[in-house]
Write a structure and sequence with these properties.
The complex is a heterodimer of chains A (484) and B (137). By secondary structure, chain A is an alpha/beta fold. Chain A has 2 domains: 50-117 and 337-483, Rossmann fold, CATH 3.40.50.740; 120-332, 3-Layer(aba) Sandwich (Dimethylsulfoxide Reductase, domain 2). Chain A contains 19 helices and 21 strands. In chain A, strand 18 (407-412), helix 18 (417-420) and strand 19 form a beta-alpha-beta unit. In chain A, helix 4 (120-129) crosses helix 13 (309-322) and helix 10 (252-263) crosses helix 11. Chain A is globular and about 80 Å long. With 137 residues, chain B is α/β, with parallel strands linked by helices. Chain B has a single domain (7-132), classed as Barwin-like endoglucanases, CATH 2.40.40. Helices cover 26% and strands 30% of the residues of chain B. Chain B has a 6-stranded mixed sheet. In chain B, a hairpin with a 2-residue loop joins strand 3 (56-61) and strand 4. The longest helix of chain B is centred in the N-terminal third of the chain and has 9 residues, at 17-25. Chain B is globular, with a radius of gyration of 15 Å. Classes of the chains: A alpha/beta (484), B alpha/beta (137). At the A-B interface, helix 1, helix 4, helix 6, helix 9 and helix 12 of A face strand 1, helix 1 and helix 5 of B.
């Protein structure tokens, strides 16, 4: 039995690097420090859903074949395609992504990563407006006001609050954890009393739920770190916040611009903005100005709702404006563990962070045209290589419909919806468990991914699979050049 | 309370902790598939439809219809706002419009909900055949 310390968790963009794994007979048996997602990954990765042999579709059925045959077929599909798509990349290592870009250039395809359906609009806005940001370490030690907008870290980045923001014990800012525990205890007592009163006086009739909207921000008067959540629905994260602002769906832009007006001391002529009374917004704006070090984390609530990149424009501008008064930073809550790395490696090698088209032999970038969902909606691609992603489960139907008509190659450790419809399935090892590599945390800090255990027999890493496909594609192209 | 057979709502899609745990366990695991073939609704909206929790409902948008299981939202009220976790079921009904920037519209989509106690929630395989007409596996 060995204990491996300081393992980086390959699940979300928080990239917690303090995980301790107990390994027994080549298997992980215990996970320490991890969240529910982390435990599920480290304990469940080797489940019955694991792909253990390369598969090729023959007569409507996926059948087991040798690596040589599967890699040969994949290379043939890519080399013969007119306009292939190479998509995924955010849940693999930077080293594999680098090879993928080489492959995309070789086959003249469109290469795109999952930020296109995630923080793509954020990237577009950052390119226009700029981003005042910092590392998570600085936030942990210094931030006294933490705002999450359109993001539910408690579910999507479960240890984010504990490791980097309100509940972390910083050098200059104390954790707000104790205050939260007291709040929870008080609310349990209150609920018990309420339910007792109900039972005695109303004979078990349930009361109407209390309306959470439109509470004045009196809870923000406390000392120490403050946590504000702004979202369209009350999430787990909203429950632990000092103040929760419920914005009407698709009205984030109005609210952001209202805050911009308020911190410039401009009058707003209406009583409510996006369903929130202006007087409450004034108090929150005042708090933003008065804090010593504020941070705004934003999630897909802004990038996926009406306005998309314009919402991010407004959020970035709000933070830029706040810097006239105090220190304020902003950061997107990146989802996949290496989506930031995908953007970084794409930019090193092509000049652009996502949606890169090599069909003319040089990189072109025009999201809306060269982005994978648009290519699919226009029904232009004829083959696709999907790695570490499941677009059939995550793209709108109209886009997935064309994807499954393409000759489809899937590289993934697990059977998923996309692999079920694929023509070639190449089983890979788990990066960060069975293969090493590098990943970028959401604040652009690179961290090493560890190889903790060996992969099942005969299973290759993403890197090795891509290297073999690339070599095979080059062979086919050379052969063709010689023939002609 | 007057019972409507159809309810106009706003559809949100997103992550839940159950979906996250399920997807790490495996995208064909029971945990994952059960966590994404559901729809969280305001208890008052369930009453308006005249149904109980765990009844199947049909959610329709301009882009398609899908049958999922209705669950009571833990954090009400949010009248006329429904939530389906990201996954193959939500995909059928989200808005593919990318507004020229590559990003489909996954949140804030106008939708209609109606009770569908007689219609089954399809399995992943059935859903893929229904949606893409392509046999899986």
């Amino acid at each position: 039995m060995t204990v491996v310390k300081a393992v980086t968790c390959p699940v979300c963009g928080s990239l917690c690097d303090d995980i301790e794994l107990t390994v027994e007979d080549g298997r992980i048996v215990k996970v320490k420090n991890g969240c529910a997602l982390c435990e599920s990954k480290f304990l469940g990765y080797n489940s019955e859903h694991r792909l253990l042999k390369p598969l090729i579709r023959k007569k409507e059925e996926l059948v087991k074949v040798s690596w040589k045959e599967a890699v040969g077929r994949a290379a043939e599909i890519l080399a013969e395609a007119n306009y292939p798509i190479l998509y995924g990349w955010s849940s693999t290592s930077c080293e594999a992504i680098s090879l993928g870009l080489e492959l995309a250039e070789e086959v003249g395809g469109v290469i795109d990563n999952t930020s296109v359906v995630c923080h793509g609009p954020s990237i577009l806005s950052i390119q226009e407006v700029g981003i005042p940001s910092c590392t998570l370490g600085q936030i942990r030690h210094r931030a006294d006001l933490v705002v999450y907008w359109g993001s539910n870290p408690w579910s999507a980045h479960p240890r984010h609050i504990e490791r980097y923001t309100a509940f972390s014990e910083g050098r200059f800012e104390r954790s707000a954890w104790k205050g939260y525990l007291n709040k929870i205890k008080a609310s349990i007592v209150r609920k018990k009393i309420e339910s007792a009163i109900r039972r005695v006086f109303f004979k078990g009739k349930p009361s109407a739920p209390s309306n959470i909207r439109n509470e004045p921000p009196s809870t923000l008067q406390k000392e120490g770190r403050k946590l504000i959540i702004i979202d369209v629905r009350k999430t787990r994260s909203a429950e632990i916040a000092d103040y929760f602002i419920q914005v009407e769906p698709n009205k984030d832009y109005e609210l952001l611009q209202a805050f911009r007006a308020l911190i410039r001391d401009q009058e707003i002529d209406v009583d409510t903005v996006a369903g929130v009374p202006v007087e409450y917004l004034e108090e929150v704006a005042d708090l933003m100005i008065r804090c010593d070090f504020g941070v705004l984390f934003f999630g897909l609530g802004l990038t996926m709702s009406s306005g998309k990149l314009r919402n991010i424009d407004a959020a970035l501008s709000l933070v830029r404006d706040l810097n006239m008064w105090t220190k304020f930073v902003i950061m997107p809550m990146r989802g996949h563990f290496n989506v930031t790395g995908a953007n970084t490696v794409f930019t090193w090698q092509t000049g652009y962070p996502y949606a890169v088209d090599f069909s003319l032999g040089y990189p072109q970038y025009n999201p809306g045209e060269t982005s994978v969902v648009d290519v699919l909606l226009r029904k232009e691609s004829d083959a696709a290589l999907i790695i570490a992603s499941d677009p059939v489960a995550n793209f709108p139907k109209a886009a997935a419909e064309h994807l499954v008509k393409n000759l489809l190659i899937v590289i993934d450790p697990h059977m998923n919806a996309t692999a079920q419809l694929a023509d070639v399935v190449l089983p890979s090892s788990f990066v960060g468990i069975e293969a090493g590599g590098t990943a970028y945390r959401m604040d652009h800090v690179p961290l090493p991914l560890k190889k903790v255990v060996d992969p099942p027999r005969g299973i290759l890493s993403d890197e090795e699979i891509l290297r073999r496909i690339l070599a095979e594609v080059r062979k086919i192209k050379k052969r063709r050049a010689e023939e002609s | 309370m007057e019972k409507n057979q159809k309810l106009r709502v706003t559809l949100l899609t997103g992550r839940t902790i159950e979906q996250g745990v399920g997807k790490e366990r495996g995208k064909s695991s029971k945990e994952y598939l059960e966590s994404v073939s559901v729809c969280y609704m305001d208890p008052e909206d369930l009453k308006r439809l005249g149904i109980k929790e765990k009844t199947n409902i049909m959610v329709s948008t301009d882009y398609g219809s899908v049958v999922v299981k209705a669950l009571k939202s833990l954090r009400a009220p949010h009248p006329s706002v429904i939530f389906i976790p990201y996954g193959p079921w939500a995909n059928v009904i989200v808005n593919p419009e990318t507004h020229g920037i590559g990003m489909p519209s996954f949140k804030g989509i106008p939708a209609e909900v109606e009770p569908a106690p007689d219609k089954p929630v399809l399995s992943l395989e059935e859903l893929l055949v229904e949606q893409f007409g392509k046999k899986s596996k």
